[in-house]
Every structure is written in structure tokens, then in C-alpha cells.
């Protein structure tokens, strides 16, 4: 008899085929019942578990926050919004621009502004502020207070008062409003501002709706000054003038570094900014403080003179009645940013500055009086 048949015969003789099959079913049923019992016991144990600990809540909160942030980021990348309305030509077609402008720079910048106002322990002030001063070449010798321990926080350090002898105010009627580098200057042609070729925009897109027509014999000019992190961060009045309007434009907090300005179209129209407008000896004059990454905190000394006029989704207009004298402090940034001057002046005005020049506030910006 073949071996296989022999084994089957022995199994049948020993257990019986029906008994073998039934035993197999019993074993299988026992396994299922044991598994069910174990599952029910586990379920009973789960019901008896303690409430989640504080650490678990923190983990869940962080995880949920990350999911919300990632979801918001991708929504900002793919959904049409303010950027596309301002410049559909670029922000619909260039995914890199949408990706960069969707980064959570506003939240980071607001947090930095909050941290800049926190008091730094006295024993840490000298090493921290000293390291920052060395890294960004800050001129501490120009400050009235040279002891770094006297500055309670970064905001105070950034806007440290300077010696009057360090920034003499020129007798010329138009002076630099801040320490910084001249990025651009010149005539505004056809009421359109152009910083980079092909990235032009209307004056009203940047300043607001109430920009008067230029007087006969005058032209409209612009000067853009970039404040680096190591510069003195307060800004001062460049002329003697009367401010009649303040316009706040909410917006993004994109970097205003020259390389980014060259790449991102209409960046100044996208970023948050505060525009002061009024009159000087030659007509219309405006000074705008443009916020940037890590500069979501702009202070301007006008609160007691403001009266709300109109508020929309894109801007808020406030009536102001304030006279600034040349060289007087107007406001301050918490870190480097940009000041933009747009003003009326005679058509024969000659600038004493060039793109790339390093300025100090109070320095003359025109060759001779006009």
C-alpha cells in the first residue's frame, strides 16, 4: 500500500474521519471564542482606562495645530485671494510666488514683535545685545546710552536714542528720514511707480485713494530707503509738513530685502503699511512705513490726533491734524524695514543721492534748495 494511503488509513482507524473533522471544528470554535473573549476583555479594559494625561492633550494639541497650519498653507497656495486680485498676471501663473507668499510669515513676525518687548534679564543683556551689535555692525558709540545693560528689551535696543552730534540735521528742506540704503529714487511717470522693470503699479494702489493731481511746474518723485537689521530703527520727518491723513493697509509681511523686491511683483502693494499724507512747501507729500518679515509692529506717534473716516476690507483711513518739523521723530520699527517717500517737487530738482548710497537720517537728499 502506498505511504500516503497508509497514513490516511491509520488516521481513519485511530480517530475516525468524521471525528477528525468534528475535532477540527471544535478546535476552531474554541479559538474563535477565546479570541472573542479576549477582545471583549480588552474592550472592558479600555473602558476602564484613565482619562488622557496633560502630556497627551499637549501632543494632540500640537498635532492638531500642525494639521491646521499645513491645511491653511495649502489653501493659501491654491485658492485665489488678495494676491491674485492685485496681480493676476504673476500670482496665477508662478507657483513659486504663491508658495513663498503663503508661508506663515505673519504669525512668525507677530511673535517676534511680542518677544522684542519682553524684558531681558540684566545679566544676559550685554552678551545678547553685544552679539547682535557685532553681527550686524551696530554703531553703539553713536548712542546716548552706551551701556547695553540699560536697554530692557530688543525694542529699546533697536530704537536707542542717538547723540545729536551723530545725526546733524541739514539746512536743506528735504533730508533723509532714516538710516538705510537708497534702493530707488526718481520721477514717478504717469502716476505709475516702477521699482523693477515690468513690476510697476499705480500710485493709488500703494498710497490709497486720495492722491491729488500734481501742480503745474511740479513733478511727482519717489525715494525708497531700506533699513537693515543693524540700522537705527526709528524714522524721522524728512521735511516741515502738515499731515492730514493716515491710511493703514493690512497685508502680508514679506521680506523687503532687495533680492526679494526684484523677484516678487508689487510687493509694496501686498505688504502691510502705514501711509502718512499731507502738504509741504511744494504740494503733496507722503511718507510710508512698510512692514516686513519680523517687522509686524510699527509705532507712529499720532494716536491722539486720529479720527476714523472710513474702513474697508483693504484699508482704513483716519483724519489727522499734525505738524512735523524736519528731523523730529515720527515713529519706529522693531527690526529693519522700508520707508517710501512720494512727493511733489519742482521739475528742476536735483537729487544728492544715488541708488546704493548709505544714508543717515538728517542728511540732505537734494543738491540745493528748491
UniProtKB/TrEMBL annotation:
Quote the pathway field. Phospholipid metabolism; phosphatidylethanolamine biosynthesis; Lipid metabolism
Segments passing through the bilayer? 57-79
> What's a Gene Ontology MF term here?
phosphatidylserine decarboxylase activity
Instruction: Please give the Pfam families that the UniProt record associates with this protein.
Output: PS_Dcarbxylase
**Source organism superkingdom:** Eukaryota
What are its GO biological-process terms? phosphatidylethanolamine biosynthetic process
**Keyword annotations of the record:** Decarboxylase, Lipid biosynthesis, Lipid metabolism, Lyase, Membrane, Phospholipid biosynthesis, Phospholipid metabolism, Pyruvate, Transmembrane, Transmembrane helix
Instruction: List the signal peptide residues.
Output: none
Q: Which NCBIfam families match?
A: PS_decarb
Name of the protein in question? phosphatidylserine decarboxylase
